[in-house]
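Hey, can you fold this?
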Amino acid sequence: MGCDVERLRSKIAIGVVGPHDLVEQIVHIGASLPSAASFRLVGAPHAGEHETHDRLSKIIGGIDVVLFTGPLQHDLARQSGDLPVPATHVQVSSGGLYAALLRGVLRYGIDPARVSVDSVAPDDVAEAYEEIGVSMSGVHVSEYLRPESVRAFVGFHERLHKSGATTAALTTVRSVATRLVEDGVTALRIMPTMHTLRQAIDTAALLGTGSRLEESQIAIVLVELAASARPSHSGPGNYWQQELKLSLHRALLTDARLMGATVTPREENTYVVTTTVGALKQATEGFRVAPFMDRVRADVGVAVDVGLGLGHTARDAEANALTALERARGSDAAAAYLVGDDGTSLSLPLRQRRKVEAEPEVESKAVKVRDRLLSHLGDDPEAMVVDAEIVAEILGVAQRSARRVLQNLVEEGLAWALPPAKSPHAGRPRQPYRLVNG
């Protein structure tokens, strides 16, 4: 008992794994945080991504949680087997893209309208360019989906550079940037912002605390796209499927941030949400309603199966979550299931969102507009992608009014914006939207 007390009183040990420069920056930032007295950072820098598992294995016995500097390192470590401690990673965001573009303009005189970008999600790139008022017609994006994606990054950037289509390559991967510079390509690292790094450290500290305290034991939530909502064919060439995954991830993050949780993609149609029992209990009203399901239905318009697992270790919680997910699959996405550390199983019904009585006319009008558009488009999923020109033609209004209509549908959860379509012509790129039927 004495040893347990001493362990609880000692600082949470957070292992930091990734490139030297990012590990050093995280350790420096962590030392200046107000919460620094509650944790200590154990750096495990590597010279190349292939060293990720080796560097982690040297510190894993002395840490409570591991913080990877990016999703690549996290995925590489998972490929070698289940991690024995909770893990999270620094998120890739548009904030780092702004800084990289500004650096490129000031130092190298690059044209921000003619660049290639990897790792950042297409919708984040589109949002960033819309905010700075620069056309994306000459911007090329290669998204990170899994470690194999990185192998194609160098060729992606070099082909565009050699053809004269781009003035610089922006990448999050250190080895890719190094190779591009060696080959004569202007390459800029997209680095996480200070705010993003502070957030990642706080999340890691939360997970580390949860792994120690029984009253704050680990909770794992597995969210899987329901079989009825999956596309008929899958793969990197299925544009609609990729957009669906991005929208699902975005919806999960909205609720996950409120409970201090992390969201990590796994396999083709599944996401892992890692949090603590206390945070999950609050989000589910004392384990009385299902988490995430109502948000996904409202924001994305699809059904998901949700399994929750509790355990004294991350491994136990994940095993229970898998059992719960299997039971949820048989409920036709009508309820989530929870399996506790003692094997107890609970059914958590879908939360019924209260309607805002002050705005019934606005909601009714938006639904009628959506239904009117759908009636002209038919049931083909591909036909449900529209833009301002199509909406203007169907409704008989100006394109400016059509854009306002589409924005209103997005705000009401009846449509979601897709990345702007590439165009060989100058001017504003075509902005497509996918209508949500249901």
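Oh, and this one too while you're at it.
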Amino acid sequence: MAASALVPKSLLGAPTSATQRVVIRTDAEIGRVRPEFHGHFIEHLGSCVYGGLWVGKDSRIPNINGYRKQAVEYLKDLGVPVLRWPGGCFADDYHWRDGIGPAAKRPKRVNIHWGNYIEDGSFGTHEFIGLCRLLDAEPYLAGNVGSSTPHELRDWIEYCNYPSGSTLSDERSSNGSPEPFRVRYWGVGNESWGCGGNMRPEEYARLYRDFAVYCRDFGGTELFLVASGPSGNDTRWSRGLMDGLGWERPGGVSMHYYSGGVDRSTSFAVDHMNEQLASYAKVEESIIHQRAVLDSYENGKKVGLLLDEWGVWDNIPEEDEKRYGKLWQQSTVRSAVAAGLGLNIFNRQADKLYMCNIAQMVNVLQSLLLTDGPEGEHCVRTTTYHAFSLFKPHRSKTALRVETGDSSPLGLSVSASKSDKELAVSFVNPRHDSDLQVECTLKGSVAETGTAQILHDADWNACNSFDNPDRVVLKQQPIKANGSKIQLDLPRLSVATVILPIH
């Protein structure tokens, strides 16, 4: 371990100050910033669903038909473009019929992936769709390939999407949903190289073809099928998959990339923080490489690349898991900086990506909300939630080329996007030891004075807790904008977004 990793933050000294020049090319467009880049993921893992989003209709915790009311309100304010469920690893041991019909009659199963607890099935297909409707989110269902059959997935699609008249659609209606769910996104397995079957890519490709041929557009809902892609930048898996698919082309291929950390979330040493944040350069490199692999195949350019699971995965103490559930993880200033780095990447690579889903929405890993279990009423917006808020103005705008002159892993991270009359620019300073004075030059547009918000705390381990839920929140940040010039101060370990009228 490097010596500086052992030095307390208070002894690291005052940060240096530097000027960073940036060129924003409003005349050089990349592609549309799809709202789906800000997608989310929930799994039957720890207290993500049970005790997090779902408390039950009879709970003393304020709820909307069983959904935690405060969580719903926070998530509606943020906006949730798409939501993926039921896993994750849980998906490939989940049989959808276990989660329909009267809750009291649903079978109880052992969750073999996440602690062998008893899963009572009270949150099933109808409950998931109900949550998506509350949040105005597009549902994305992960189908079971590891321990199921093509027939089971085919029937789940018919149950969800066929309007009426078939036995399955009438069963859905009798279970309280006469209108079809119209689910477009379907994952055909999950992490088939690991917990989803421990397969070789050629094996999985054969199974994908077996399953996909029975996945039909029931009721006119055109399906977007997602094949199980690589862990990180595993081009061997990607090529094995594409070779094995032959002429079959899925709507998309999923990729998972976690940025690991060796410390507890709230006690990161500086060297370990820098190592984790620097990993986002590899995330961007992986997106570029995986896109190139897909594009090298005939009709491969038509296959969307999804970063289906991403985020920081820190060292989680056993006492936290015992108290709050499996993989319960606090989100800090460091976590928010990591989120900003990722979201900037998605803007910069907007022409290469189709969807990105952070893991996970509540309580688990890099969550947007934290709750204190099925009996607790606390629901806190994390620093990651606020980082996502900063990037909301980019949705559906056109991403632009940006030149920073610094491509180092811990250099200033910038992305920009525009609509006809508005420019959004997001900045991330991942350095713990350097405040920046940022000077931006616009090429192709003229800006008027706008507004800026910033997320920052000098302590990278600072977080929003149940006792202090607003320790780290968005604040207004002064900016200067005059014609083609923009200036703002960007302190160490901060995320900021500037909104400017342009012409």
